[in-house]
Amino acid sequence: MARRITTITPKVLTQRLRTLERDGLVVRTYHAEVPPRVEYEISDLGRSLAPLFSALSKWSVNLEEVERARAAYDARQRNRRG
Question: In terms of pTM, does the model score above 0.70?
Fold first, then answer.
């Protein structure tokens, strides 16, 4: 997975994965090999979030409208100040 993620540092990725492991959303498996290897997989609890992520994915078609609303809001704020 780390090879495909380019916008997060290894340190931050490790911190996030440990948090997800602590929350029970992922399972970490350590392999005592040379070099050592660690695998992460989504737990059953993590998989239970699939409907939520599906709904968010479907809703994301609205992001352009959100950006338009932000731009309109920012323009109104600038006009009030100026």
Answer: no
Given a contact cutoff of 8 angstroms between Cβ atoms, the answer to whether 27 and 40 are in contact is yes
Task: For residue 19, give the nearest of 46, 44, 57 by alpha carbon.
Answer: 46
The answer to whether residues 5 and 34 belong to one domain is yes
Mean pLDDT of the chain: 92
HEC sequence for 21-45: HHCCCEEEEEECCCCCEEEEEECHH
Show the domain range for 71: 49-82
Give the separation between CA 52 and CA 58, rounded to whole angstroms.
10
Question: Do 39 and 59 reside in the same domain of the chain?
Answer: no
Task: Give how many domains the chain has, as a whole number.
Answer: 2
Interatomic CA distance for residues 49 and 18, integer angstroms: 18
